[in-house]
Structure formats: C-alpha cells, structure tokens
C-alpha cells in the first residue's frame, strides 16, 4: 500500500485529506487545530506514541475511506460564503442546541455526586466558563466577523483586510483558550470515563462532552486551517 501521509505532512493536512482522521488524532490527544502547522511526526513523538504504528493507522484509515471522501465536500475549494454558512448551520447551530442541555446535566451530576467525586467541582466550573465563552464567541462571529469577511470578499480593500486580520488574530487566541479548556476537561474526567457508581445522566454527560470536543475540533479546524487562510493568506 502506497503511503499518502508521511511524518513531514502538516497535521492539519492529514485532517483536510482525511476528515475521519480527526477523531483518531483527538483520541491520541494530538491537537490538529492549535498545532495545525506542526508536522504529524513531531506531534506523534510529543505524545510518546509509536510513530510507525500511528502513521500506519492514518494511512489505512485514508485508504478505507478513500471512496467515501471523494463524495465529501472539500471546503478548501468552496466559496468563502458557502464555508461560512456551513460553519453556522452545522457547528454554531449544534452549540446553540447542546450547550444548555449539557449545562443542566453537568449541574445535576455536580449536585448529586460532588461529595464522592470532588473533581466534578472543577468540571462544573470549567464547563460553565467554556459555555459562556463559546456563546459569546459564535455571536461575535455571526454578527461582526463573518459579515466583515463577506463584505471584503465583495469589495477587497487593504484597510478592510487589516481590520479583518486583527479580528482573526483575536479569534485564534480565543481558539487557543477554548482548546485549553477542552484539554483540562479531558484530563479531569479521565478521558470522559464515568466512574462505576455513575448514573445514566452522569454517563450521558460524559458522552456528550466527548461529542462536543469532537465537534469543536472540526469547527475550529475549518476556521483556523481553511477559512482564515483563505481570507488573509
């Protein structure tokens, strides 16, 4: 089998060529959003993983999904307005729906189990802050940043580009912050493994947190590694 990926390929390129690799990298705690330009070989080494084994997994995953991927939208080749609308429809809508439900679940399990599982105090606190930041983040994108990008696409000027670049730099810093929250939550929850005495709500909350992390990785990947480079180079 001819290898599509080698250790020198940028981590974000792996996910752009094989979107399903995102979950595999996430499971290995390889951040393809914040460290997208890092060669995949270096990212693997930093996690003390067997480079040969992980590279083999990635190449096998690509081959298995090659036909399916041909039918998937290649967002790096789509118009900017279509990409922005997809981010809003697929990812922002998901956050609007799931964040309040997760807040309720995490508050319930915090109230019920914090006496026996004190780490839930930190989980509850971190998620509450993350929820507020995400809600503010997507609102700013929809009402300010995305309209500026779309206006620039219609009438590109140097002043508009400088303005957008400043906002994009701010968004990337916020993405870094969000990524750190996700990393801390994963560590606090032992990779979202519910304890043996957990009720169904407890277990479901951890499943939903894991799903949230996956969606956010894809969401922020589309912005950091596809949308922003398309606009500001």
UniProtKB/TrEMBL annotation:
Subcellular location: Cytoplasm
Top-level taxon of the source organism: Bacteria
Keyword Flavoprotein assigned: no
One Pfam family, short name: ScdA_N
Cytoplasm as UniProt keyword: yes
Ranges for domain Hemerythrin-like: 86-230
Coiled-coil ranges (or none): none
Principal location: cytoplasm
Keywords noted in UniProt: Cytoplasm, Iron, Metal-binding
NCBIfam families associated with the record: FeS_repair_RIC (TIGR03652)
Name the UniProt record assigns to this protein: Iron-sulfur cluster repair di-iron protein
Native source species: Fictibacillus fluitans
Gene: ric
